[in-house]
Amino acid sequence: MSGNEIRQKYLAFMEKHGHAVIPSAALVPENDPTTLFTGSGMQPLVPYLMGEAHPKGARLADSQKCFRAEDIEEVGDNRHTTFFEMLGNWSLGDYFKAEQLPWFYTFLVEEVGLDPEKIYVTVFQGDEDANVPRDEESVAIWKELFAARGVSDGVAEMGSEEAGGVRGMQDGERIFYYDASKNWWSRAGKPENMPVGEIGGPDSEVFYDFGTEHDPAFGENCHPNCDCGRFLEIGNSVFMEYLKTEAGFEKLPTQNVDFGGGLERITAAANGDADVFTIDLLWPVIEQIEELSGSQYADNHEAFRVITDHIRGAVFMIGDSVLPSNAEQGYFVRRLLRRAVRYADALGIPAGEFPNLAESVIATYEAHYANLTMQRDTVKTAIAGEEEQFRKTLEKGLREFNKTLSVLTQWEGDAEANNQGTFMPPESIFKLITTHGFPRELVAEEAVKRGITLDDRTWTAVDALLAEHQEKSRAGAEQKFKGGLADQSEKVVEYHTTTHLMLAALRHFLGEHVHQAGSNITGERLRFDFTHPEKVERETLDEIETWVNNAIATGGDVTIETMAKSVAENDPTVEGSFWDRYPDEVKVYTITGKDGTIFSRELCGGPHVSKLEDIKGRFVIKKEESSSAGVRRIKAVLATD
Ligand code: SER
Questions:
Q1: How far is the centre of ligand 1, averaged over its atoms, from the C-alpha of 446 (Å)?
Q2: How confident is the model at residue 262 (pLDDT cuts 50, 70, 90)?
Q3: Per-residue pLDDT tens digits for 175-204
Q4: pLDDT over 70 (residue 474)
Q5: What is the tens place of the pLDDT at every residue in 355-364?
Q6: 261 in Cβ contact with 209 (< 8 Å)
Q7: What is the best residue among 203, 233, 234 to mutate for testing ligand 1's pocket, by most ligand atoms within 8 Å of CB?
Q8: Which of 207, 294, 317, 441 could form a disulfide with 231 if both were Cys (CB 3.0 to 4.6 A apart)?
Q9: Which stretch, 302-316, 382-396, 531-545, has highest mean pLDDT?
Q10: Is the CB of 40 under 6 A from ligand 1?
């Protein structure tokens, strides 16, 4: 069965059970500056899981594009990928365990056709410290489901992953209790790692048994959470009903379900082959690489998988308008393509073939992801450009490398250096890597080719230089957009105060559901994301403009109060978002007209103008558009013409 088919079946199945099918959000979250990429299906839905009403209702389903940058180096085994699709369904205070578990199980058995004998499940054993009970309710539901299919339903206590490896599993066992490191889900992981304000809950995971032999390198005995490859997690139903507070865990106002299942993994299970690269969504690229390289996949698993994964990741990223660059998300696209070039070279794939591999990815996915059809040319051109540019960098890097060597050969008479085996000073290597973009592995390889030893001491010194360099650029990036401001120049500050007035006007004309979801201000314009389910009509935008311009025209004052965060948070006249990013002591900015009318009161780090007459120009909304699901974006200027 194909991945495209399973995606369709899942969405249709969920639709049949009353879910609104929503489109995948972009890979780059628009309203969540805490993370670079969308890494799970629930991420774009956090505001709704926390209680906000979703315009499409209380039952939602989708197939969300996800990217996990932290897995780049892991790619190469049979299941890690950077990009993947997560099938997801959500209950926003609607159904709970009694519906969720039977639905997913029925989907797997009846729609995907998995053998019930090969399906195993895990449940949460409870956590006294967090005051969360054992999930006996899920166990009862699973037992009933298994009995109805005539398969064993034995329950086992596993505890931690390690304990599970010692105990192993006995015949007839199918339901396994694990601790919070395995059966608790939040964006921050275990209960004790969650910051105050974060939501999470116990979960129940489903595993597919590929029946391969246990590899003792992963523990004495096999069990569902063992990493030897026999079991693959194919779905996770999170019962999101807890909020972490200062005092411990509190129940959220509603019981939510957050389900996520890897599309590639479910497809691999359907095909009975644990290698996700053999499914229809990835195999065409593997076949193409076989043809281009004249090598077999079976003999070169790692290189084939890296190239395939990285090209697919780059296609989806560029399809979401993230072009290769040195900054932020773009850096990862660059890294994917550059790593792919290195592996492609090792396999002897001719230069210039990447756009053809990209074409095959697009052809596989475009029926579901129309943006890929629309962006086809951009994607292929950007990939071709990056491949070419990187090849030039490599050539130049090699020349620099040789230049460095011609200097270094003079050292050959230096007995001490010889003894230490350090022919190349760490500073030169650091420069090759940072200034000339010559990859570190290539430095090592080229050195070996020339009989030069680069010992551990050299690399430790290079790493220290690189770490220092990274620290500096990170600090630079943090400075760059502090509080959404490009800098603190006069014009940026004028725009910042105007943004507060605009948010107040949006709330005045559209309603109290409007909150800030993101902000990015330069000296030329403001860009503001806010929670609102639909397009704002031009007439309303005009009214908002007038309201803001009238407020500015009063020439009123901006005042600052400092107060405890808990006080501000509980004051209904104070508007604020991202409370968790503020310290315990916060600033509230109030904008008041000359006649005493309060226009705006908002939590903010500043800075602001002190008098509205300092704002120069006429406030004009240039554009209003969708930013992501449930979030709109406004671009506006202070026009001086
Ligand atoms: N949030 C859960 C996960 O990512 C289920 O969607 O696994």
A1: 43
A2: very high
A3: 999 999 999 999 888 999 898 889 999 999
A4: no
A5: 999 999 999 9
A6: no
A7: 203
A8: 207
A9: 302-316
A10: yes
Number of domains in the chain: 4
Does 455 lie in the same domain as 340? no
Confidence class of residue 605 from pLDDT cuts 50, 70 and 90?
confident
Read off the pTM.
0.72
526-531 β-sheet, strand order? 516-521, 526-531, 631-639, 618-628
Do 174 and 319 lie in a common domain?
no
The alpha carbon of 86 and the centre of ligand 1 are apart by a number of angstroms equal to 8
Domain end point (choices 236, 260, 278): 278
Residue with tokens 């079946």: 9
| DSSP-based three-state secondary structure for 484 | helix
pLDDT tens for 34-51 read 678 999 999 999 889 988
Question: What pLDDT is recorded for position 85?
Answer: 98
pLDDT in tens, 441-472: 888 888 887 777 787 888 888 998 988 887 77
pLDDT number for residue 419: 44
Q: Identify whether 485 is part of a domain.
A: no
Residue 258 CB less than 6 A away from ligand 1: yes
Whether 566 and 512 map to the same domain: the answer is: yes
Domain enclosing residue 34, as ranges: 3-278
Closest residue CA from atom 2 of ligand 1: 260
For ligand 1, whether the C-beta of 88 sits within 6 Å is: yes
Output b/e per residue, 422-439; b: 16+ Cβ within 10 A: bbbbbebbbebbeebbbb
Residue 399 belongs to a domain: no
- d(CA 535, CA 537) in angstroms, rounded, equals 6
Structure tokens at 269: 């299970």
In the reported structure, the alpha carbon of residue 102 is separated from the centroid of ligand 1 by a whole-number distance in angstroms of 18
User: How many CA atoms, within 13 angstroms, populate the side-chain half-sphere of residue 415?
Assistant: 0
CA-CA distances (angstroms) from residue 92 to 47, 240, 379, 588?
A: 11, 9, 36, 32
- Residue 410: the pLDDT is 47
The answer as to whether 596 is a domain residue is yes
- Tens-place pLDDT, residues 149-179: 999 999 999 999 999 999 999 999 999 999 9
Which pLDDT value is given to residue 550?
A: 95
CB of 200 shorter than 6 A to ligand 1: no
Q: Which segments of 246-327 are extended strands (E)? A: 248-262
Which of 125-129, 446-450, 602-606 shows the highest mean pLDDT? 125-129
Can you tell me which atom of ligand 1 is nearest the CA of 88?
6
Residues 290 and 312 placed together within one structural domain of the fold: yes
Q: Whose CA is nearest to atom 3 of ligand 1?
A: 260
Question: What ligand 1 atom has the least distance to the C-alpha of 260?
Answer: 6
Pocket test for ligand 1, best of 43, 45, 60, 86 (most atoms within 8 A of CB): 86
**Tokens representing residue 428 in the block:** 């030169």
User: Which of 24, 37, 38, 42 has most ligand 1 atoms within 8 Å of CB, for mutation?
Assistant: 42
Q: Are 510 and 380 part of one and the same domain?
A: no
Distance, in Å, from the CA atom of 516 to the CA atom of 603, rounded to the nearest integer, reads 11
439 lines ligand 1 (CB under 6 A): no
Over residues 267-283, the pLDDT tens digits come to 999 999 999 999 999 99
Cα 204 to middle of ligand 1, angstroms? 11
End residue of a domain, out of 371, 394, 417: 394
The one-character DSSP state at 37 is S
